[in-house]
Amino acid sequence: MRFFYANGGGDCYVLSVGKVGSDLDANDVTGAIDLLKKEAEPTMLVIPDVVEFSLDEAYSIQGYMINHCGAEMPSRVAILDIPNGYNEPEDNPTASVDVFRDRVSGTVQKSNSYAAAYYPWLHTTVYQSADVSYKNLIEDSYANVATLLTTEFTDPVKGISVDHANAISSFTNKGMSDDGKLTIDEADAALQNLSKQYPILLGKVKRQLNLMAPSAAMAGIYTAVDNADGVWKAPANVAVQNVTAPAVKINNDMQENLNVPLNGKSVCAIRFFKGMGNMVWGARTLDGNSNDWRYVNVRRTLIFLEQSIKEAAKTYVFAPNDANTWVTVKSMISNFLTGVWKQGGLVGPKPADAYSVSVGLGTTMTNEDIQLGIMRVMVKVAVSHPAEFIEITFQQQMQKA
Q1: Binning pLDDT at 50, 70 and 90, where does residue 393 land?
Q2: Pairing mode of beta strands 115-119, 268-273
Q3: Is the pTM of this model over 0.85?
Q4: Gap between the Cα atoms of 168 and 142, Å rounded
Q5: What are phi and psi for residue 47, nearest 5 degrees?
Q6: Would you say domain 317-397 falls under CATH 3.30.360?
Q7: Do 268 and 295 meet the contact criterion of CB atoms below 8 Å apart?
C-alpha cells in the first residue's frame, strides 16, 4: 500500500484474504476476485502478493485475473507481476518472463488485452530501518540469531558478560530474558546499538523486504497519469518513486524481446536511465500482436468511453424508442466525445475525423429491435491515429410496451 500511494495512488478497494504471515490459499484469492463482480467502480485489479504463492498457483491466479477482466468485468484491467522476476541466470536473463509467457493467458485471446505485465522487480526504499526488527524474522530463526550474537559477544578469555547473555536469551526464552528483566523488544533496541552483526542482519532483512514486484507502484502511476493527463495518456516514460534500482538491468536487446515477442505477450520494462531515473519503459498489453489492442492506454480509453456512454444512456431507458430519443442520444454522445477530443483523448483535425455516432432505424436497428424495445448504438472513435477507427457497439433495453 505504501508503494501504491508513493506513486500517486488514490481511492482503492482492499480485499483481505488472510493475516500477514498466515498460509496463503489460492482459492481464497480467486474467491475474493469473484466478489468484485458485484462492484462496478474498480478500474484496475492488482494482487502484489500473488508472487508469494507457488509458481503453479501464481500463474493460475493470474490467468483468473485476466479472465475476470477480459470476460466477466470488461470495465477494468489487470496489472500483473512476473513471479521470480528478480534473480535471473546469466545465460538467460529473462528466464522468468519466458515461463510467464508460457503459463499465463486468458481463456480467449481477446482477454489478454485487458492485462499488462511489468518487469523486473524493484529495489525500493519503502521500508526504513525503523520499520525492521526481530518481528520481521520467523521464530524458527531466533535460535540462529542467538548463536550469531553469542559468537560475537563471547571473549576467548573472559567469555560472555551477564548483560549480553541475558539480552540474547530473550530470543530463546519466549520473549523474556533469563533473569526476567528484559523483554525481547527491549533486547532488540539494545542490540541494535551494542552489536555490529545484528544491524547488519536487520539490514539484509530490510533489503529483502524492499525487493518488491512493481504492480502496486504501477497502479499508483496509472492513477497519477489518469488524474494529470487523462486515461488516454500512456502510463510510460514516468519515473517510479521510492526505487533505488531495478533488480535486473535491462539493455536494448532485452527490451526488444520484452516488447515485441513472437507470441505477442509483451512485457513492459522498467529501466534505469542516467539523468532520468528508474523509468517505466513500456505500455503494451499481453495482446501485443493486435493492431487495435496492443497498447494499454488504448484499451483503457475504450473502457472509459464505453462505460461512460453506457452509464449516460441509462437516462433514456424509459424514453420512447423513437426518432426524437435517437436524436437526443446521438447529440448527448457526440457532445461527450467532442469534449474528449478537445482534451486530446481522440485523434483528428476535427470532430468528424475523430468519431462518429450512429443510432436509428435502418442504420443500427430493425423494426424487430424497436418492437422488442432494444436501442442499438454504434460509436466509432479514433484513439491512436486519425485513420484507425475502433468500433464500440452496444444495445440498451428500453421500456417495453
Answers
A1: confident
A2: parallel
A3: yes
A4: 10
A5: -135, 80
A6: yes
A7: no
